[in-house]
Amino acid sequence: MKNCLWEVINNKNSLSKALAEEVAVQIRFGKTKKPNVIWIEATGCSGNTISLMNADYPDLIYLLDNMINLKFSNSLMVCDGERAFESFLKTLKEDFILVVEGAVSTKEDGLFNIIANYKGNKITAYDAIKMAGAKAKSIIAVGTCASFGGVSKAYPNPSEAKSVKEVLQKDVINLPGCPSHPEWIIGTLAYIITNEKIEVDDLGRPLLFYGFTIHDFCERRVYFNNRIFAKNIGEPWCMFKLGCRGPVTKTDCPKRRWNNKVNWPIGDNTPCIGCANAYFPDGMEPFIRL
Amino acid sequence: MVKLIIDPITRISGFLGVEVEIEKNKIVEAKVEGNLFRGFEKILKGRYALDAVYLTERICGICSSAHALAATLALENALNLVPTENVIYIRDLLHSFDIIQNHIRHFYLFTVPDYVEFDFSSPLYETCHKDYRIPDKLSRKIQEDYLKSIEFSKLAHVGVALLGGKAPHNHGILPGIVSVSLDRLKIEEIKSIINKIKDFVDNCMLEDVNIISMYYGDYFEKGKTYNNFLSFGLFDYEDFYYVKPSVIINGVKSDFDVNKIHENINYSWYEVHDGQVVENIKKKGAYSFVKSPRYDKMPVEVGPLARMILSGKYNLKSSTMDRIIARCQEASNILRIMSIIVERIEPFKKEVKYDFKVSSGLGMVDTTRGALLHYVKLDYDKIDGYDIITPSAWNFSPRDDFLGTVEKALVDTFIDDINDVVEVGRIVRSFDPCISCATHVTLRR
């Protein structure tokens, strides 16, 4: 934890870039192999794939060229139909990392989320995640739906959605966030690829990215300390009284920021809605108290 | 007769399978299957009214701003709240950055690999079809533009984040207001982003789609729909507009009338029980979680081609290649409109008061993939009912008396090589399917 704290404070912004470069060097000199990755989109919005496309340093192409062999991705792979699913099946026979985004719909044995039809059989996301989860070297749940159920599991949970860990009952690294930040995803992959242990908390979240609350590093903290509070959307003060969930939400958003680091929700004069929390959205509402 | 199931249709948002029957190299039957159910309308009931904006964004990772805007319009309608022109311009700008992000990503990441063979080393780019016709030199040019496109689609999301905090799932649009603090520097920043993206779209994207259309001319004959088109209108201002709310049915144009919208669930995995629509995966004959919205009982096509035709910027015709070209041309046109809007926005002071009561509201807007409708019923500050009809529901609906729009586009298509059916994926992708969006259940009507 001490080591982690140092890294967070001193090296935060360039960290996942540094990690990714280290991985590329190790792969080039044969110290590690480019691992296979299966990325399953389940019951969600595929927003984590979009977020991954928004990665800057390293970007999506660097990730695909230098860090991983992405073998299955519904959103991105060129092949379709049975040949696409065969790539999934073949990869199961090799070493691979499983990434899941979206919650796992279990209603009607998973038929509320079919991801393929293979030789006349409907393959549900529930089936595919169990098949791959049993053999994967490491499992990463990307986004709040995969990590904790998220919006897909919100009351009354119409698709009987569960988190990846609930379904697999194995160690899962959780990277919550709605969506997850691309650097949290690529940074975590970098650790797994180099066989370096990434420290996680009791909810499976890497301390490197989820070690502190948003409140700890918020750029508006000084207003909180001086009890200067915004009463309306758009005011530049602390939004605690508008329902900001920064004090109970652990991510490094204030320092990492979003989309080429140009902004983040609090920078846009809106409260943090706690989208990376285990109880999002049910336990985080109303998002804005006006 | 050969029966073929292509599932997953990859390079789309969400889960879609297509079942076709082919006789003498011609598709004679097609079923389009939406394979995901989430039940957002059920989730929304009983929640705080304002939360509809941020929650409905989570329907779709690729077009979240569209849902924020439609939910905001529905709530404004329910609350009798009229935003200022400045607010409308700013949020339209935010929404249009997201449309541009979509159009660039859909063209390069999802469409181009259907027509151009890349030589990237990643296994992601392994192909499973043979019909690639573009000469190597031009393929390498398009591959270079593909790499550039990743930067420019990201830049469009930087535009969303500047105005809305982050993307996807921005925070910037709310009933009556936008949350962003604008200053002169930020406005110049936004202008420069628009210029940069427009330069790429006009000089690379339009050229690349032109190259593709030259080598795949037969796709002007494949994937024809009914010639029924619908738009709820987009960038419809007092002194200028892109497209007005309008429809073309059987080739005849008229004004749009909201009362002509109906939905049926004949072939969808839903049933009506005690006036409520409930899911039933075992329903006989049903094959999709997508419902069938109809305009005046007719299936219609929505999206960039529909808008370009309805605005008079494109000839009245529909095909796979026309759809792809219209999307690229629309991207250029929207960027042009964005540079007009950005000159009109200015820093402002935000004040809003919500006066909640028992009421209902309708929010309709055209977005990336076409016409999007949100309907909210409020019990003071709580949601009593919520309905959503998404663009992909119009295009990807199952049949009733008529085939669904995409089913119609598939049927009668000539298949060049029965052992390598590449046509189905190409036709379906030209509609830019978003099945995360399309799968909902309606509580009440």
TrEMBL record, chain A:
Classification via InterPro entries: Cytochrome-c3_hydrogenase_C (IPR027394), NADH_UbQ_OxRdtase-like_20kDa (IPR006137), NiFe-Hase_small_C_sf (IPR037148), NiFe_Hase_small_N_sf (IPR037024), NiFe_hydrogenase_ssu (IPR001821)
Q: Where is the NADH:ubiquinone oxidoreductase-like 20kDa subunit domain?
A: 45-191
Query: Which Gene3D superfamilies would you find in this protein's record?
Result: Cytochrome-c3 hydrogenase, C-terminal domain, NADH:ubiquinone oxidoreductase-like, 20kDa subunit
Binding annotation for [4Fe-4S] cluster 2:
H215, C218, C238, C244
Q: Where in the cell is it found?
A: Cell envelope
Q: Which UniProt keywords apply?
A: 3Fe-4S, 4Fe-4S, Iron, Iron-sulfur, Metal-binding, Oxidoreductase, Signal
Q: Principal localization?
A: other
Instruction: Spell out the GO cellular component terms annotated for this protein, sorted alphabetically and separated by semicolons.
Output: [Ni-Fe] hydrogenase complex; cell envelope; ferredoxin hydrogenase complex; membrane
Q: What positions does the entry give for [4Fe-4S] cluster 1 binding?
A: C45, C145, C178
Q: Which Pfam families match?
A: NiFe_hyd_SSU_C, Oxidored_q6
Tell me the Gene Ontology biological-process terms attached to this UniProt entry: anaerobic respiration
Q: Name one GO molecular function term.
A: 4 iron, 4 sulfur cluster binding
Residues where [3Fe-4S] cluster binds: C253, C272, C275
- Domain Cytochrome-c3 hydrogenase C-terminal, by residue range, is 210-287
Cofactor(s), by name: [3Fe-4S] cluster; [4Fe-4S] cluster
Regions annotated as coiled coil: none
Instruction: Write out the similarity annotation.
Output: Belongs to the [NiFe]/[NiFeSe] hydrogenase small subunit family.
Q: How does it assemble?
A: Heterodimer of a large and a small subunit.
> What's the protein here called?
Hydrogenase small subunit
| Provenance organism | Caloramator fervidus
TrEMBL record, chain B:
Q: Name one GO molecular function term.
A: nickel cation binding
Keyword set includes Hydrolase: no
Keyword Repeat recorded: no
**Quick one: which residues bind Ni(2+)?**
C60, C63, C434
Give the superkingdom in one word.
Bacteria
Q: Which InterPro entries match?
A: Ni-dep_hyd_lsu, Ni-dep_hyd_lsu_Ni_BS, NiFe-Hase_large, NiFe/NiFeSe_hydrgnase_LSU
By its UniProt entry, which PANTHER family does this protein fall under? Answer: HYDROGENASE-2 LARGE CHAIN, UPTAKE HYDROGENASE LARGE SUBUNIT
The name under which this protein is listed is Hydrogenase large subunit
Native species: Caloramator fervidus
